[in-house]
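Q: My labmate handed me this sequence with no annotations at all. I'd like to see what the chain might look like in three dimensions before we decide whether it's worth expressing. Could you predict it?
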Amino acid sequence: MVLTHFARRILWVPCILLWVTAPVWGQIDKCSVVGRVQDQSGGVVPGVRVELKRVSTNEVFPVLTSSSGDYTIVSLVADTYALTVAQPGFKTYVRSGLVLEIGRTYRFDVTLTLGESSERIEVTASAPLLRTETPEQSNVIENAKILGLPNKGRDHMAFVGLLPGVAPVRNSYGEGTAGLGFNVNGQRKVDNLIWMDGGIIGDSNGSSTIYANLDAIQEVEVKTSLYDAEFGLRPGGQVSAVTKSGTNQFHGTTFEFHRRNDFEARNFFDPGEPPFYRRNIFGGTLGGPILLPKVFDGRDKMWFFYGYSGERRQRGISLTGVMPTLDQRQARFAKPILDPLTGAPFPNNTIPSSRINPVAQKLLPFWPEPNTTGQAYNYVSPNSSEDFSGSQHIAKIDWRTSNRDRWSARFLYNSAPFIINNVIQRFATTEPYTTWSQTISNTHTFRSTVVNDVTAHYYYLHYQTVGAAGDLPGFGKTLGFSNWPSTTTDQDGIPTTSVLGYTALGHRSQFGPADETFQEIRDNLSFYRGKHSLKIGYHLRKRAEFGAIVNRSSLSFDTRYTGDPFANFLIGAPSSSNLGAESYRLNYHAWSHNLYIQDSWKALPNLTISLGLRYEYRRPWFDKRGFSSNFDPVRAVLDPPLLTTTVQPWQTGRFVANVPVLEYVNTNFQPRVGLAYRLSDKLVVRSGFSIFTNEPQGGIVESLGSQPRPNAATRTFLSDPSTPTLSLSDPFNGPLASGGTLFNLRGIENPLPVPRMFSWGLTLQYELTRKTVVEAAYIGSNSVHQFGLVGYNDAGPGTAPRQDRRPYPQYQNINFVTGDNRNNVQSLQTRIEHRPGVEGLTLLLSYTWLKSI
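A: Here is what I predict for the chain of 853 residues:
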């Protein structure tokens, strides 16, 4: 797509900003403080020195009040602080015990008292829960809830479901990976974005892929609606987790979470005791200053933090199946077995050894012998167990190199393999699932009113669907099939062999790798002038996906021909077969450039107006290797076209490579308007209107990697219903199933319209006590151009053959994604929250009424 002259000039802005500024943190994992200093008569006091001190590290953040007596301090790490205000002719004001949380803007107004500056007025008070400065709808799960509330599996995402407007949904990930997704304000799960330490850690379908060690998490913030222009990409929830940092004091924790079979229910069909079960989640954390005796003292300068979490699980599993009996293994049956050649029964219900298929003889030993009777099954998998071993490492270093610069680097590695069970233990597999996340960031203060932040982040997810067991390399070649295709995907392991009424043989029916990466640079420049607090930001994001799923060949046997499925297997007479091939293969790359400007205007002492504009420029999706193509309904062809129609190795791309397979209409301007008005010291009203845009979830684009191409589509062969025309020795040589020469296609409207969500809301928040607030909010939205799947090649009415009645009779089904869907949401959300005081009680109670059309 060719950039317009205007768009090209716009994209120079972040480049200039990055060139003239030093790197620092993004605001998504920080907090800020604002306030006004006045005297006892109510007059503002300009030029006052205001210091905020981080208690755990002795870092000091000084500013001077403006001509209007206002001050602003940004890019603060969530922690406990002390505020000091000093001015000659006034007593020094000190307020301690201020626990600041991520994503929050706190107001601390100070009234100075006449006196000597050597005199001190000391106040110990917690930070207010009342949100007085921003219109956004958001909530923070603070450390007390993270560590104190029960949490099965120790998943930090589980807390998100406690908040108003959020409905949890279960993901399909396995044990040890993040297991919860959620819908926010009636939007889909795929519309969410998951962050950790300023970098995206969620997958392309809106779910977290990491169980973060709870002892290593400082806080979790969830923005649900009306957030400012710094946040975008998707219109749903923005979930930000921040890991802990080291301090001047060494501190650490240990933990152990244990479950056992004494509390498990047994399988209804298994009369024995519940199977053996043990689950241990354990680990610990350690943080403090970096000390090298007589060489380096990192107190007040350099700190480390490390967290480890391990999971070990042993589960005895009740797996049952039906195996061939000892007589059947000898080709002896209890009922007449017909000879397909003559139509007469075999003598003595026994198949002669000369008629046993040689491939069947090689496959037969993989069925274990029966070990039980008197049930609907004759086999219980002995000592069948599921052993899981997962680990997570989090390491972090913070370094204050000067009063103007603070660096931070965090590394996270998570391993949580899937367990794929099988009643025949030889075919059970363990499949790797690993994630890496690395961030490096720095905060640079040019002067007290100009601060710049940047974060560089790399995220990598690897998942490997294991196809064959390690003890059978190359076994598929040795089975004795005639005309075994040289490009087959089944060189290892056993094809799926399904005999009606019996447990199937074979390794997992699909296998292949999947990789997803995010590479990001986020830069924010914040500066303050008079009553305005301005932020300008840029977010460069590269998203890459590589994946391949291969379908293993399969064989099916039913009752036709001999009257018994297992007899058909022994003589080698399948009813059908599928020649394995790729389900899809892709190698995508896509870039996006995101710019925003946000102004917080203090129009009145009790009124803050928020004005913002965000623009997102999304470059087209490219397939670097030519594995993918889109369906063009106007020309009724695939675009890009096939590079060659000859049979190629299945790992080779066949479409023209490195051309756009999906483009966007880049009119992604997103204005944000809101206000926060303090009706009194205890009552705040917040309101706003925002426009958000969206990007397609991964599954939509991935589908373009499954277009038909030579030697990359599963072919189904059918045997004649009355006479065997397929042989187990040559199962992929016969008539194709009906429609076997016509293909299913997939497509996406191109260029893709911009999905937009128009969101509005009104919130009232009241402070009952210093530690208790109640809140009621009305949140509404209207979404247009939402993605939806339609059948583009459905047959119309008539008496002609069905295929002739299709709009594109040269194809079968065409699944096509368009931007024609709409959604309207109206909701009422209430919340009561109490933070721990001397009594140690914490409370979060929320209720949501929501209607989505």
